[in-house]
Amino acid sequence: MEVCTRGERETRALGEAIGALAAPGDVIVLAGDLGAGKTVVAKGIAAGLGVTEPVVSPTFTIVREYEGRCPVRHLDVYRLDSLQELMEIGLDELIDDRGVTLVEWGDAVGALLPADRLEVRLEVLPPEEADDETRVVTICGLGPRWLARSAALAAAVAPFGGR
Ligand SMILES: Nc1ncnc2c1ncn2[C@@H]1O[C@H](COP(=O)(O)OP(=O)(O)OP(=O)(O)O)[C@@H](O)[C@H]1O
Ligand SMILES: [Mg+2]
Questions:
Q1: Which residues contact 46 (CB under 8 A, 6 or more apart)?
Q2: pLDDT digits (tens, 9 = 90+) for 12-45
Q3: How many domains does the chain contain in total?
C-alpha cells in the first residue's frame, strides 16, 4: 500500500492509525533516509498504542521502552557499527509476545528481524516532484500476523490518499 502525507502532523496521524491496529508481538520496521520521518511515525504508532509520555528519538540510547496498552520498545539501529552489537543489545529479548517493537533503520538489519513484520518506508520526493513536506509512505505487511489484518490496515490508511 502506498499513501502520501503532507506535513509532520499527517505522518504522525498515519502512525497513530497503524498503532491502533498493532498488537503485542508485532515488529514494525521503519525505513527511509535521514530525516524522512521515521521517528515521527514511531511517535504516532506509540500514541495509537496508548503511550501518553513523550516519545523521543532513541538515536543515542539505541532503545527506549514505553508503556501503553502493552510495552512499546523503540529502537534506532543507525549508530550500531555491526550486527554483533545488535546481538549484544539482545534484539531477541526486545522482540517477544508481550510488546510491540519499532525498529528505525530496520531494513539495515533485516536478516535479524522476524520474517513476520510490518514495513513502513518513507520517501522524500525530488524537489521537482513535490515540496519538502511531502512523504510517500509504503506500508507492507509481511507474514500471517499482518495478512490477518490486511483489510483493517488498508481501511485505516485509506484516508491518507495517494500521490
Ligand atoms: N510529511 C512529513 N512527514 C514527516 N516528517 C516531515 C514531513 N514533512 C516534513 N517533515 C519533517 O521531517 C523531519 C522528520 O524527522 P524524523 O526525526 O522523524 O526523521 P527520521 O527519519 O527519524 O530521521 P533519522 O534518520 O535522523 O532518525 C521533521 O523535522 C519533520 O518536521
Ligand atoms: Mg529518527
A1: 15, 19, 55, 66, 68, 72, 74, 102
A2: 999 999 999 999 999 999 999 999 999 999 999 9
A3: 1
